[in-house]
Design goal:
This protein is mainly alpha-helical and about 140 residues long. Helix content is about 65%, strand content about 10%. A hairpin with a 7-residue loop joins strand 2 and strand 3. GO terms for molecular function: DNA-binding transcription factor activity.
């Protein structure tokens, strides 16, 4: 199990880099923003969802801002937080990369499993995701 967890991100990243020029972390960052209401998320929540540090995320989002894919602004609900909002150009990038990522997930994770095994995997993953994790 540990070897799978360690190998899978690299295997998912390779086609993204080759076909879309994105790392897996970059793709996940754009993808999570694209799925959020109004295509905007607090940076702290985005770091958690993308499984990265706030520092790493800030560097990636800064590059995305320079490319015109993301805009940052203070959260109007609480100015202590910063929002990352996906621009139309950023949405086009993630939309173009999504089929590559989904194909890799299907080939590496879903296709080798029967329908029953896929359901079991989904149940196990949901149980593990719901478990509180101490990140400190």
């Amino acid at each position: 199990m540990v070897s799978l967890v360690l190998l899978l991100p690299g295997r998912l990243e390779s086609p993204l880099q080759q076909e879309a020029g994105l790392t897996l972390f970059e793709y996940l960052t754009l993808s999570h923003i694209s799925e959020a209401p109004d295509r905007r998320l607090r940076m702290s929540e985005l770091a958690y969802l993308a499984n990265g540090s706030l520092s790493r995320l800030s560097n990636v989002v800064k590059r995305f801002e320079q490319r015109g894919w993301v805009e940052r602004s203070p959260d109007p609900a609480d100015g202590r937080y910063t929002l990352a909002a996906l621009t139309d150009a950023g949405f086009a990038v993630v939309r173009a990369a999504a089929p590559t990522h989904l194909r890799a997930v299907r080939e590496l994770v879903l296709d080798p499993l029967t329908a029953d095994e896929q359901r079991s995997l989904a149940e196990i993953a949901a149980k593990l995701r719901a478990r509180p994790v101490d990140l400190a």
